[in-house]
Write a structure and sequence with these properties.
single chain; alpha+beta; four-stranded antiparallel β-sheet; 7 helices; 15% helix; globular
Length: 309
């Protein structure tokens, strides 16, 4: 279950003001968190991963901030599905191309995240994403596809990214260019089961998910660090955002059975339906991990006519 309600304070992010937990990590450290203080939290499995990633103070659309954003304990569930490339292309900007499993079939994902300890305090998140070719890659993408399926380094474009906290919404939308909004999101992931529910604007069900957790394998810190590069536009200019995940306990099931994914009424369900997914080819559940989310950087992408933007 999510942490109980606590007192909040108001903080400014650029031109926006949001409420954050009083006495929480953001209140105390404003993104430049004391790693020794985090290490004392019994929920955190260690901090070695973060000591190798020194933070830097940078300017951003939300004002000066420290990057990367550190997530000290997270859990995730991801459904990878195949969908018609034509449906996928209809949802992509012209500058991006789907990563195809075979001609005419691409890969899409529905994901759920629980961030128990992080620089901007507890929140949950859901996502609908499309696997795309790296913007600087002009070939067939076979190497990129194999790397992506191995969960090594995937490139994506996100259609939906609802979150459960105001600070996550403002940072994600204004600072990163992601399609974020705030709603109730319940995510519970353990060694037995992974379950999630995303509420729509009226409090009803947008999307719900439940599945048995695949058998988990424990990993040493640094043994498996996967990367995700996401593409967004900020003020009309293309940017790329790097996310690095230090996987500590994970399992996967190919062609999984017993997946209960229900689509109700809402933005997330609409985005999933628009992709016309054919079937789920893999379920990945990570019961313990850590993450470093870097601030976006400008990148050049090509229009269909070959011109750079």
């Amino acid at each position: 279950m999510a942490p109980t309600t606590q007192q909040t304070i108001t903080v400014d992010l650029g031109a926006r003001s949001v409420e954050v937990p009083k006495g929480g990590l953001y209140d105390r450290y404003r993104m430049n968190t004391d790693l020794d203080a985090v290490a004392a939290d019994p929920r955190v499995p260690g901090i070695d991963f973060f000591r190798q990633l020194p933070k830097a103070r940078v300017d951003s659309p939300i004002g000066p901030t420290w990057t990367p954003n550190f997530y000290y304990r997270i859990s995730t569930a991801r459904l990878t599905m195949v969908a018609p490339a034509r449906a996928i292309r209809s949802r992509l900007p012209r500058e991006l191309a789907p990563l195809e499993l075979t001609p005419g079939l691409g890969l899409v994902s529905v994901m759920f995240f629980r961030y128990d300890v992080c620089d901007i305090d507890f929140y949950t998140e859901a996502a609908v994403g499309i696997a795309v070719k790296p913007v600087r890659h002009g070939g067939l993408g076979v190497v990129d596809l194999l790397a992506g399926l191995k969960n090594d380094h995937l490139h994506s474009y996100v259609l939906s990214l609802p979150v459960s906290s105001d600070i996550a919404q403002v940072r994600g939308h204004d600072g990163y260019g992601f399609p974020k909004w705030v709603t109730d999101i319940g995510v519970d992931i353990d060694d037995t089961r992974a379950a999630a529910r995303v509420a729509n604007a009226d409090g009803g069900m947008d999307v719900s998910f439940s599945a048995r957790t695949p058998r988990q394998a424990a990993l040493a810190s640094g043994e498996q660090v996967s990367s995700l590069t996401s593409y967004t536009t900020i003020n009309g200019a293309w940017h790329s955002t790097l996310s690095q995940t230090n996987v500590l306990a994970a399992g996967a099931a190919r062609l999984p059975r017993g997946i209960d994914l229900r689509l109700g009424t809402g933005r997330v369900a609409d985005d999933i339906r628009s992709l016309r997914p054919i079937g789920t080819i893999q379920l990945d559940v990570v019961t313990e991990a850590q993450n470093a989310l870097h601030m976006p950087v400008p990148t050049s992408v090509r229009n269909l006519d070959g011109a750079l933007r």
